[in-house]
């Protein structure tokens, strides 16, 4: 059911459109190209290096950010179904997650185009991108469940969530290169760059961006993501056990 509903969301969004879901890919391509041309000049990096770096960052962040933002309203936006259809709340969580996976798949076309235009030496480590995305999706599920439940009870949470996601976009190495600042000859800048390690979004971004770009794998990012996954799902199971029956009343 959740797979069917998620697919219908995509079809409904682009109903009567000539090129349909390809608008997702075109929008991402235009954004990445424009910002890549700008920030490659600002940071003094070759376009062939910075554009794929920026593209992967945007594609992954689009999945993460949408899971958090849309997750805050996952039950509110499905009020009618929740009240009329006796189904587990997990259906709405999986429906949203599946829709974001489809968006991610459309945006991934931009990555393959850039890989063709700006070839990067890749090794078998590129296959790590598959379990990396699976790990991100697993975390997306518990985030949607927890944030969605809290937001259903407290309707002031969605605007706060959107503001936090927007702030974290600038604090996460997406348009700026973390390694470039960490190796800056100015010790003050290099030291401050290490503060980015506190940002949990950075670790999820790096576990998939490093294999997709053929960069050396930093395994501590995987350890951090694994720890967040365990803690997050423990929290989600507690929320699910205590509050899932109340969601239909809160909406």
Automatic annotation (TrEMBL):
By its UniProt entry, which PANTHER family does this protein fall under? CAPSULE POLYSACCHARIDE EXPORT INNER-MEMBRANE PROTEIN CTRC, INNER MEMBRANE TRANSPORT PERMEASE
Predominant location? membrane
Cellular component annotations (GO), alphabetically ordered: plasma membrane
Q: Name one Pfam family in it.
A: ABC2_membrane
- Into which family does the record put it? Belongs to the ABC-2 integral membrane protein family.
- The entry's keywords: Cell membrane, Membrane, Transmembrane, Transmembrane helix, Transport
* Residue stretches spanning the membrane: 21-39, 51-68, 101-118, 124-148, 160-178, 219-240
Please give the organism.
Answer: Saccharopolyspora rhizosphaerae
GO process annotations (BP) = lipopolysaccharide transport
Q: Name one GO molecular function term.
A: ABC-type transporter activity
Where does the record place the ABC-2 type transporter transmembrane domain?
A: 5-212
The source's domain of life comes to: Bacteria
What is the annotated localization of this protein? Cell membrane
**Membrane topology classification:** Multi-pass membrane protein
Taxonomic lineage is: Bacteria, Bacillati, Actinomycetota, Actinomycetes, Pseudonocardiales
Listed InterPro entries? ABC2_TM
Name-wise, this protein is ABC transporter permease
